[in-house]
Request: fold
Amino acid sequence: MKPPKDTGAETGQDIEIENETGDVAAAEQYAPSEDWIQQYKKQCTPTLIKGLNGWARTRVLAVAAAGKKVDDYDARGLVADALGDTWLGITRWDPSKCSLRYHLYRTIERRSEKHRKHAEDFPHDSLGDGTPESHAAECDASELVGDHERPIKRVFASETLAQIRELAGDDKATLRILDAYDAGCETKEDVLTHTKMRKATYHKAYIRLRRIIRNLTDATLALKARA
Amino acid sequence: MTKNQQEKDLRILDIITREVGKMELEDPKPSPDDKRWAESVVADMHARIAEYRKSRLPKTVPPIKKREPISKALLALPRAALETLFVALCQESPDVQLAFRNLDELSDNDLRRTIQAMQKAGRKGPRG
Reply:
């Protein structure tokens, strides 16, 4: 997604941080103009929410890979909170500077990053759902947590990536892309240069990779009954 | 597994999930349950917007101002006399502007009210 030409969304970020650290009065006094409301209402569509939920699910998968127990409610919560907090003025959106979609995309990204860092800093908060697998994972984590050379976050990430490779099976193009990242590539251009892959091949491989990530996300975030 | 490999895996996972997340954002493929949820979120937000707009309306409705009754003198005049009086008033005040120009369709009482308004405004005539 192309970012806006100016830094409207970044300005919103600063206000959000200010509000979240105690400037509640500013949010309470927030009164959107009729023009703002019209823009918000016009851009707040089911298609927007569906797309943002897809984005949030992948970000929550990254949080899960950091060791936090998550489910679909977390992804939906990220979307609903971003939308509601924008309406309440807790995170400020300027319609003249960026679209609502970009604003919410950035809000979800920032907040999921906070969750991910929290999961990395406090791994034991996230474990212990009573299953044998969880118990085994907790025991493994306990052995690792005192070892600063092997932070627990990397164990979960490596397991998730191993699953992705396993689900890719003998899909050579997908595995080549993963190997390219392993060799240090960061962007699409880097991967294309490194693998000498055609754009169409890359694109098709990413569609398959998307399916793998989707299946993995579905399995990780499957809705569970909450106490 | 070495520390370096684990660091790499963390970075790779971040890149892949971001790329796939952007694809999901651009071209969502929601489940039927996600579709229903998205529609309910939008419906809730629209309800909140409607509630907010409603809350901004004045709490009390301003009293309805009754129109001034037509004077007995004007009520007594027939249509022909009213039209003559109206023309005379317009000639006395050439700058007068009327929103309603098709006098043939103006009822007798509307014509009386127009004349009364013109007389009350010091023969300057109603505007707009």
About this structure: The longest helix of chain A spans residues 199-221. The mean pLDDT of chain A is 79. The CA atoms of residues 64 and 70 of chain A lie 6 Å apart.
